[in-house]
Specification:
With 235 residues, this protein is of the alpha+beta class. Helices cover 25% and strands 26% of the residues. The protein has a single domain, classed as Alpha-Beta Complex (Spore Coat Polysaccharide Biosynthesis Protein SpsA, Chain A). The chain has helices spanning 33-38, 59-71, 154-169, 180-189, 213-225; strands at residues 48-50, 55-56, 79-86, 97-104, 110-122, 125-129, 135-138, 143-151, 194-200, 205-206. Strands 1, 3, 4, 5, 6, 7, 8 and 9 form an eight-stranded mixed sheet that branches. Strand 5 and strand 6 (125-129) form a beta hairpin. It is globular, with a radius of gyration of 19 Å. The protein starts with 32 loop residues before the first helix and ends in a 10-residue tail after the last helix.
Length: 235
Amino acid sequence: MSPHIPVEYVFQELENVPEGVSYSPERTKPWGTAHAVLMAKDIIHEPFAVINGDDFYGAEAFKTMADYLESLTTDQQTQYALVGYQVGNTMSENGSVSRGVCEADAGRNLVSVTERTNIQYSEGRIAFQDKDGSFVFLDPETLVSMNFWGFTPEYFRQTESMFSDFVKANSDSLKAEFYIPTAIDKLINTNTASVKVLRSDARWFGVTYKEDKPLVIEKLAQLIRAGIYPAQLWK
């Protein structure tokens, strides 16, 4: 992409932790998604979005997020955003999926994101299994998180101190990870940030299972045939 847009690379190095913080020398696992974002704190100096690298979010979702971030004023730097997808638009035809089920207040501010695993079709309806194994059905329009976040550089300052506390509390752990939803949950509960849930009617798709690949290829081809995406993206 570098011939077309500015590109910077940062790397999530295990040893990149705050000064004076130590951890088990046996640890090899990365520190999680919130730590990965922190690696860009010296590169990014403007509002930015965070996405998964293996998901297709749709052009509409990017425009919705861009419009929101561009509207932020200097006194709104801790008013973050999340693109919420209708769960019915994010299902795989080849097995269960994990999604963050969103709860928002009347002003569409995020209250919580609850990770639900094994979301699947059951009796023709969308459902997940709760702790006792029984199925809980979801309305197809239930908003879920697909890890499409919008932040400002203030997010780096807020999560850097959090990450320092996390490593200290998990210094002996070989697998504990510092996730974006974990950081967001703390910011919301301490009233130090808010997250606006931006609705998107776009259809998500990704390669959750290897059997998904042919379907993804065909869906991209359909978007090209419909004129939504050009055959040659950079022309």
